[in-house]
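Q: I'm building a small set of examples for a reading group on sequence design. Run inverse folding on the following structure and report the sequence directly after it, with nothing in between.
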């Protein structure tokens, strides 16, 4: 390592998955200088997917997704400061001002500030017993409240809401799931797959209500009921709100960095000279779609740090790729490739009632989106077919006896 006087500092604000992966990527790619990783949570950096699944339904430790043990940070000479909030950024002077009064100089800055759960502005929204799920602390509080027989109302039928429904049901709770739209995940899923998902939840005893609007939460100091716009009153021992998130851009915006539903980043996840943004907080110029996107996904939190670390070390390249998401609910694994776009044709491969099938969306004879239900083994050939952008025979694509690897190989 260089002498202290000659050492540069790479400062990473946000000690979640994207932040910790950035530190690891910098070391792996050859950064020999100081790395400072600052996060306001007290836990070691961890992945979030287990929080809505194993942590709730199987009582796993919220840090089951811990990225590295404490010793790793010492071995890699990553200066990790948990429970530490950054109060402001001085981009021109290249300094971090911490909330405790200390300040730190930096030569390279990576913003990995993540996102927070969106709140509802409704009467009674501040009552006790109305929770969100975003952090390990949230998961601990929620797990303690999921008691057998408890009446749980979930607001929002996105991935988090659906995973929570499965987990709360496994805990013996009576679950009602409310979704404002007439179809589950209509921004992400084709209607046929969305209806299949809704049927699975109802078959598991979930009271799923679509196209409903909330009016208020009722209770004294603690929530006791949810009132809908049509006057329906649903008793509730616990309410969990899962209506999306908003990126944590306040630090960046106050410092004068460009923001619009995320910190705006270009090639190499660069925001400004010496400044990069990764993970849930970043809205980046996507090399795959050609537009700006903000992706809240495990994969983005893994790959964007690689691009940012390479750029800091002088290798600046466009970032982005075919989006990939997944969710686990009951014994069902759903994987999505691509994003929902206007389609010319939809192709179903396999029988949904068998519990394993694929749904493809085609445009100009090419696969542009895919939903794989309990068919994870097909992800690699499907990914190849989408990325290569070749025309496929819809009849062969629909035939489960025609291996997708064969179609991909032909491509």
């Amino acid at each position: 390592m260089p002498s202290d006087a000659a050492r540069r500092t790479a400062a990473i604000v946000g000690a979640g998955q994207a932040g910790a992966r950035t530190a690891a990527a910098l070391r792996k790619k050859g950064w020999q200088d100081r790395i400072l990783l600052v996060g306001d949570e007290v836990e070691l950096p961890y992945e979030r997917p287990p929080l809505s699944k194993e942590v709730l339904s199987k009582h796993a430790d919220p840090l089951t997704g811990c990225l590295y043990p404490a010793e790793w940070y010492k071995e890699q000479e990553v200066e990790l400061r948990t429970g530490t909030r950054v109060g402001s950024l001085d981009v021109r002077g290249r300094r971090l001002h911490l909330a405790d009064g200390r300040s730190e100089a930096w030569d390279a800055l990576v913003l990995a500030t993540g996102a927070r759960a969106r709140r509802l502005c409704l009467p009674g929204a501040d009552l006790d017993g109305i929770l969100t799920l975003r952090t390990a602390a949230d998961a601990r509080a929620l797990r303690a409240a999921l008691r057998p027989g408890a009446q749980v109302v979930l607001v929002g039928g996105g991935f988090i809401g659906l995973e929570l429904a499965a987990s709360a049901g496994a805990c013996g709770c009576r679950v009602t799931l409310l979704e404002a739209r007439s179809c589950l995940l209509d921004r992400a899923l084709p209607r046929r797959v969305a209806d299949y998902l809704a049927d699975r939840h109802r078959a598991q005893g979930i009271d799923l209500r679509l196209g409903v609007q909330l009016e208020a939460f009722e209770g004294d100091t603690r929530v006791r009921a949810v009132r809908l716009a049509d006057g329906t009153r649903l008793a509730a021992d616990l309410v969990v709100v899962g209506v999306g998130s908003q990126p944590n851009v306040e630090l960046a915006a106050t410092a004068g960095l460009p923001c619009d539903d995320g910190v705006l980043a270009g090639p190499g996840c660069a925001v400004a000279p010496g400044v990069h943004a990764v993970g849930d907080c970043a809205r980046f110029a996507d090399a795959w779609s050609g537009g700006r996107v903000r992706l809240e996904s495990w994969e983005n939190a893994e790959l964007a740090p690689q691009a940012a670390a390479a750029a800091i070390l002088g290798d600046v390249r466009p970032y982005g790729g075919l989006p990939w998401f997944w969710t686990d609910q009951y014994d069902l694994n759903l994987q999505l490739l691509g994003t929902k776009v206007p389609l010319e044709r939809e192709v179903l491969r396999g029988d949904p009632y068998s519990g394993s099938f694929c749904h493809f969306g085609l445009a100009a004879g090419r696969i542009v989106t895919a939903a794989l239900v309990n068919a994870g083994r097909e992800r690699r050939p499907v990914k190849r077919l989408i990325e290569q952008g070749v025309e496929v025979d819809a009849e062969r694509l629909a035939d489960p006896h025609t291996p997708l690897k064969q179609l991909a190989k032909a491509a």
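The radius of gyration is 23 Å.
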